[in-house]
Amino acid sequence: MMKKISPTPILSALLSLMVLGQTQLASAHEIYGTLGYASGSIDQYQIHCFDNGDGNGANDHLYINVSDTLPVAAPLVSIQIQRANIAKNLTDAVDGNATSSPSVNFKGGGTGNDFYILTVDKTAAGNENYKVELHCLSSSGDHVGTEFPILTDQ
Fold first, then answer.
1. Which of these, 131, 121, 111, 119, lies nearest to 61 by C-alpha position?
2. What stretches of the chain adopt beta strand conformation (E)?
3. N or C: which end of the chain has fewer CB within 10 A?
4. DSSP secondary-structure letter at 40?
5. For the chain, what percentages of helix, strand and coil (3-state, to nearest 5) are there?
6. CA 13, CA 31: separation in Å to the nearest integer?
7. Are strands 77-83 and 114-122 parallel, antiparallel or unpaired?
């Protein structure tokens, strides 16, 4: 005789995971990473800013900066952010302090559904930790949908 399993605990667990996943998507505005020892190590992300239907509207621009976090090491951390044929570079000039690079507002393409390529790199060999703060924002400054899958992790 087979034991009957109630679907209620399974459905409850699945629902909890879905809610946690949605919370992460809505509140995830920082990327923490580590660049490997080689001087040419990079991490790359595809940032997608979009209208997620929450009433905040479509994407207008991406707000972004980078921090070269502890431990203090010789290389400096930079980011390059690109959309279409426009690119910007930001560098955190002092490693391990509480100050990030200058922040930049990177305008979207006018469709409200924008993709940006973010590259994180460093000036020399040595392991480096970083934090990227990013926010996809509507023209009124409200948060809109944000996703940033990693493309390259070195």
1. 111
2. 30-35, 43-50, 61-69, 77-83, 86-91, 104-107, 114-122, 128-137, 145-147, 150-153
3. N
4. T
5. 15, 45, 45
6. 27
7. antiparallel
